[in-house]
């Protein structure tokens, strides 16, 4: 099953995001211990097209529990960067 993780940064989180970026990227390089696969991911950006304001993931996983465990273990979550995280099932229709 596919799941979308939509995570919006708290106000003023950009310096903390940048300080934890390498740890976040390393974490994402191997998701096998959570039983999930990243289909695609990347930062959400403001209307200027460059300033990072959150994260979006499309995850393939056996169930919601694996996705929640994966998200909780992300260094960005541990650093308190995200103000709001929504995890929603997703049915692919095109693409």
List the helices and strands and how they pair.
Layout lengths: L1 E8 L4 H6 L1 H8 L8 E9 L6 E9 L3 H10 L1 H4 L3 E9 L5
Antiparallel strand pairs: 1-3, 1-4, 2-3
Offer a concise description of the structure:
Belongs to the YciI family. By secondary structure, this protein is α+β, with helices and mostly antiparallel strands.
Outline the structure in words:
Strand 2 and strand 3 form a beta hairpin. The protein is globular. The mean pLDDT is 97. It has a four-stranded antiparallel beta sheet with strand order 2-3-1-4, with helices on one face. It has one domain: Dimeric alpha+beta barrel (Alpha-Beta Plaits). Helices cover 29% and strands 37% of the residues. It is of the alpha+beta class and 95 residues long. This is YciI family protein.
Keywords:
single chain; about 100 residues; alpha+beta; Alpha-Beta Plaits; 4-stranded antiparallel sheet; about 30% helix; globular; Dimeric_a/b-barrel; YCII; Sec-metab_biosynth-assoc
